[in-house]
Amino acid sequence: MVSGPIIGGPFTLISKEKQTVTERNFLGNWVLLYFGYTSSPDIGPEQVQLMARAIDILESKQNLKVLPVFVTIDPQRDTPSQLRAYLEGLTGPVAAIRQMAQEYRVYFKKVEEDGGDYLVDSSHNMYLLNPNMEDVRCFGVEYNAEQLSEAIWKELNKKPS
């Protein structure tokens, strides 16, 4: 059996409650992981809303529990208090964010703008992690909430081979 590249790995970040969080905090849960930033003018906040809607659909229609986790790729601006509105929001030192992004094959780059402001250019993938914190599926921006919830439902209901 040929498998793809290993995606994911250990991490140590900080929750919006300013607590240290590692991958071990999520063991035993299905997790939908998204890397973004709160000051994103477009796709980031939309993806977080999409994630929340898909999880609501799973809970209300299928009675399935999936934990949404948002990891900032802009820790300079996304402090724990800034992340309060964002699901289970995680931040941390730039080096820790960069390491986790590399483990999940997430591309991001700071793009300077006039006046000292900046944007963060990034890939906008979501990762479905099983209760062992193993990546089982990656979702791009082409999904709406219903399609995303359906795809997640199928993954959670696959029979072990």
Automatic annotation (TrEMBL):
InterPro entries named in the record: SCO1/SenC, Thioredoxin-like_sf
Q: Which domain of life is it from?
A: Eukaryota
Q: Which GO terms describe its biological process?
A: mitochondrial respiratory chain complex IV assembly
- Gene Ontology terms, cellular component aspect? mitochondrion
Pfam families linked to this entry: SCO1-SenC
Annotated family: Belongs to the SCO1/2 family.
Q: This chain belongs to which protein, by name? A: Thioredoxin-like fold domain-containing protein
Q: Which organism is it from?
A: Trifolium subterraneum (Subterranean clover)
